Amino acid sequence: MTDRPSATKINQPDRHVRRILERAELEGIELIRFMYADHGGVIRGKASSRSRLAERLGSGIGHTVAMMAMNMLDQLQDVEYMGPVGEVRIVPDPSTFVPLPHAPGAAAMLSDLRNPDGTPWEACARTFLKDAVAALADDGYTLLAAFEPEFTLGRRLPDPTGGYDRLIPLDDSLCYAGTGFDTAHDYAIKLIRALETQGLRVEHYHPELGPGQQELSVRHAPALRAADNHVLYRETVRGVAMRMSMWASLAPKPLADQSGNGAHLHLSLWREEQNLFADDSELRECFIGGLLAHLPALTAITCGSVNSFRRLAPRMWSSAYAVYGPDNREAAVRICSPLGESGEPNLELKPSDSSANPYLSLGAVIHAGLDGIRRKLDPGEAVDVDPDTRPGRYQRLPASLDEALDALEADEVLMEALGPLRRSAYLAVKRSEAAAFAAKDAGYELFHHMRVF
Question: Which domains does the chain have, with CATH numbers?
């Protein structure tokens, strides 16, 4: 079977192609990874050799359609049009080319999944976000976004009793404590340099609440670039750790009795150079209204794993209720105060973590917010207390992945946005994960999420 579609269908900017080929030659890059995120939230891909790179930039690399029906346990699901028959291409975006400092001799590009004739494939997650961005543009808006991830740094050790491998945190330091900075210093410096080399502008870093827990945030970017950045971030966090004989997990809850790892999503809506969340409080409230109206369904995508729902509990500062409020860190949507005179206000969506596919997650959030603007949805009264102190007053978020998937299936706006093939595959993959982990004990769940994310 050939893996060479009509190159004329896939237009690549010549300047990017020339730059890539020159850099690969000059920097001794032997393998170039074409990366994408699947419905299980796993970052996957294939790599081109340097000798075939010029050709593969146009043709992509052949790939079975079945991979988008694979769950995070590598169990293939029965999804129509995603079986043994059928082919797509992993087609890289040359503007995303970056050398991988944690993998000397390798580089990466973020990629779309396309039909053999070069047209977008209906199950491509990156295309889903592109379409959401286009829908925003049709209404005159652009969105800037940034994921704010946490992760647990430590070492992966075999269980002496023959059970699952264990994640042993690097330290037992306190939140924001100097000992935490010192213990993880060498790793943090290597990570920052690796991210900056790839064009991710690091903003803040600190040791977080749990043992071995780290938080490092990168600067906001246009929506597609923000999702691309999060894929690179996830790969780099783990790659740098592996090169230092450590293990980093971005799983929502890799350790059952410790703090969870979120990837809070920061958002601001713009028109030209104007931050509309700063200058139009009515527009901001309508966007929030859309987020809250669709939040039960959104959690099936922004918190896309069984493990996610261990984190979404009251009084954990991760959000457990569908409420919003100014600088309320127990609210699902926080209106963030600007930092300094030059700071810009933004929204923070707290039920979000790194087990989600970032393209699906951010795309779904855009559709929800845009629905709020178009229908002028009222978010209700802002909440300025911990919502858990007022029992029964506020709507709880789904308590499990299955419950969130039920909400997603009932959400006409998000189901329509996902489209027939993508939604059938996503639901099949996620239902299979919920069933697989329900049949096992907690140790099985924690191990596999620690291993994969």
Answer: 7-120 (3.10.20.70), 131-452 (3.30.590.10)
